[in-house]
Amino acid sequence: MGLENVKHIILVLSGKGGVGKSSITTQLALTLSLQGRSVGVLDVDLTGPNIPRFFGIEAKKVTQAAGGLVPVVVHEGRDKTIGIANGSTKKRRDNLTFGSLSCMSLGFILSSRSSAVIWRGPKKTAMVRQFLTSTLWPANLDYLLIDTPPGTSDEHISLLETLLKEAMPGQLAGAVVVTTPQAISTSDVKKELNFCVKTNVKVLGIVENMSGFVCPHCRECTNVFSKGGGEVMAREFGKPFLGSVPIDPAFVMLIEEGKLPTYPEGTMVEGVDVGGAGLADVSEAQDPDNYVPDDGLLVEKYTSCSLYPIFDGIVKRLVLDVEGEAS
Question: Which segments does the entry list as coiled coil (predicted)?
Fold first, then answer.
């Protein structure tokens, strides 16, 4: 019970806290959805369950059903024949198709965002196992992304023990490992790579997060934390380097306030011009099919973010690796 509806499982790991695993998990999920895959996100960072906040669904709660827990829906899928995902008659990017997205997190169960989780190892272990075995994911879920806490703690051990017991052969596709460019980060993340080696978890690739800063007032992307540490580490361990992801305040505003990302004309991020006229400047009268209203879905607004083209490339590589092997 719990994993039989899932085709592929990907862990998001890091040996260090504060490197942005939840941010990376969120954007991997949104991009997989935009590439037509149905996605589930399981948050097993029990002391810092931030996934509900990233998806803007903190106020929602999980429900109990026969056989387990029903995850919270972020958005339903939309295809060309259905058109509108939420049943609305108002036009909102009708030409954009995407797969469904749902989440499970302890954050949905806690009484408030500030509630502290003060649990010993056995209780954490039991909670991770319950999430893995009792969450009723939608049928034929293409990808389950598991956002993990930093390090190699009780949650990681419980997670892998349960997956070894419950998952079908080949169902665990592997792990995406997240680092930041600084040496202090890569030194900690190397321990996570060694953890993967010892537990026979395939490393699908390494993502270097916080590699640069996209200025909201000018056209520059500045490497405030240096750049290249993750790529050097990937070469050292013989693992794929998936890409560098800068800090984008517009993405932060999208998550925190729901604001559609906008950039000065000529803003270049990883060789892509994300500034000037774009979806953020399209009015409903000019192009009703591409117009995104203020209450549009997060997945719709994300396509205007400078980070979306980067993750589009990252996810295409992951899908080719995972589904190429499965076929």
Answer: none
Contact 149, 44 (CB under 8 A): yes
User: Cβ distance 39 to 49 under 8 Å?
Assistant: no
> Does the annotation flag 215 for ligand binding?
yes
Query: Would you say 150 and 195 are in contact if contact means Cβ atoms under 8 Å apart?
Result: no
Q: Binding site annotation covers 196? A: no
17 annotated among ligand-binding-site residues? yes
Residue 18 in marked binding region: yes
Q: Token pair of 191, please?
A: 């321990």
Among residues 130, 159, 144, 129, the alpha carbon closest in space to that of 67 is found at 130
Q: Does 22 belong to an annotated binding site? A: yes
- Asked if 249 and 216 touch (Cβ cutoff 8 Å), the reply is yes
Give burial (CB, 10 Å; 0-12/13-18/19+) of 305.
Answer: buried
Cα separation, 81 vs 160, whole angstroms: 40
Encode pLDDT of 56-93 as tens digits. Answer: 999 998 899 888 999 999 999 998 644 444 444 333 45
Is 218 marked as a binding-site residue? yes
Over the stretch 263-273, which tens digit does the pLDDT of each residue have?
Answer: 888 888 877 78
6-326: CATH topology: Rossmann fold (3.40.50)
Encoding tokens for residue 168? Answer: 């079908």
Instruction: Say what the pLDDT of residue 326 is.
Output: 54
DSSP secondary structure letter of residue 41: E
16 is in an annotated binding site: yes
pLDDT of residue 301: 94
